[in-house]
Design a protein that fits this description.
about 150 residues; alpha+beta; four-stranded antiparallel sheet; 4 strands; about 45% helix; globular
């Protein structure tokens, strides 16, 4: 057998051994033996839609962790002043968090763009609470990138 053939046989044997080891590990741990695509999140500080997604992700994390100071700072940074005042009135009347439209924190969230026009970008925020999902309609100003509206 030539030296090149020996290297090829060795490479195939190493690859087969690695594959078998991965399969044994997957079976032993109850995971999939196939590789899944890595998750990714992207955005831009210039995009109003990205700001909506950034706000909801960070805000939910802060509320979940019980970090009221950070939640308040996020509101001050991402929400327009008129919206902050509107949310305060809504919260006083409804005894719930106006950003989440609830008294507790969702288990999962998703932000979906619903288009832009007349200087605004629109999104639907889906909040999942166990087996229930609610939707909130959010609008941000394209120029300031501030969130200007949160509605059921």
């Amino acid at each position: 057998m030539s030296m090149l053939s020996k290297k090829r046989v060795t490479s195939v044997a190493v690859a087969a051994t690695a594959g078998a080891a991965a399969l044994v590990f997957a079976v032993a741990t109850g995971t999939s033996a196939t590789a899944s695509a890595p998750q990714s999140v992207s955005g831009s500080p210039e995009g109003a839609f990205t700001r909506i997604a950034d706000f909801y992700g960070s805000y939910i994390d802060a509320v979940y962790e019980g970090d009221g100071r950070t939640a308040d700072q996020l509101r001050a940074f991402y929400l327009s002043e008129p919206l902050q005042q509107e949310l305060k009135r809504w919260e006083d009347a409804n005894h719930a968090n106006g950003v989440l439209r609830a008294q507790n924190v969702p288990a999962r969230w998703k932000v979906t763009s619903t288009g832009s026009g007349t200087g605004k970008t629109n999104a639907t925020v889906s909040l999942t609470w166990g087996s229930d999902t609610t939707e909130i309609h959010v609008r941000a100003d394209l120029r300031t990138k501030k969130i200007v509206s949160i509605e059921d």
